[in-house]
Amino acid sequence: MPTLTVVLGVAVAYVVVRERGLLSGLVDYISTVPIAVPGIVFATGIVWLYLRSPLYGTLTLIVVALVGVYIPHAARFASAGLIQIDKSLEEAGRMSGAGKLRVIRTITFPLLRPSLMSAWILLYVFAMREVDEAVIIAGPNSRPLAVLAFSFIEAGAIRNSAVIGLLLTLVMLTGVLIARMVFRVRLDSSSL
């Protein structure tokens, strides 16, 4: 989920920051709407939208909802990174004969990587602890750990909930450490 959200956030940020005009304003407005809508209302809308589809009650629907909720965060991180990268670097790449996608891949993306790492880690932690949307959307066979902990608390099984909470913390810590190691290796190797 964090990877997909960051990729979509970069696309939104690129359109908003680099492509000025009516389209960029519209994309910026649409991408920030989930911030204004409470999570429970957003999840209820997702359930209503997909109620009669085969996605209802599946893990895929939870991913769709969480991507929708967290795109504004990813787009803001990517926008902050893109604003710091001067447009003349991309123009120099284009003048040297590189296509737009190659310029993005070889110039913009490596410079944007630290912002994307921060966004990925933040979204990973947010997704792991998310309860509001997941409680409403989760089905009997698609309950994330945070929803399982909530179910145990609701049933009065505090010890079971504490075990799930500890497991959730370990999973988050492991994911963050792995992401930091992967990005640090890539950042170190790209600076050589």
UniProtKB/TrEMBL annotation:
Membrane topology: Multi-pass membrane protein
Main localization of the protein described in the UniProt heading: membrane
Domain of life of the organism encoding this protein: Bacteria
Keyword Metal-binding tagged: no
Domain ABC transmembrane type-1 residue range list: 1-179
Cell location: Cell inner membrane; Cell membrane
Keywords: Cell inner membrane, Cell membrane, Membrane, Transmembrane, Transmembrane helix, Transport
Bilayer-spanning residue ranges: 29-51, 58-83, 103-127, 163-183
CDD domains xref list: TM_PBP2
Family, per entry: Belongs to the binding-protein-dependent transport system permease family.
Name of the protein this chain belongs to: ABC transporter permease subunit
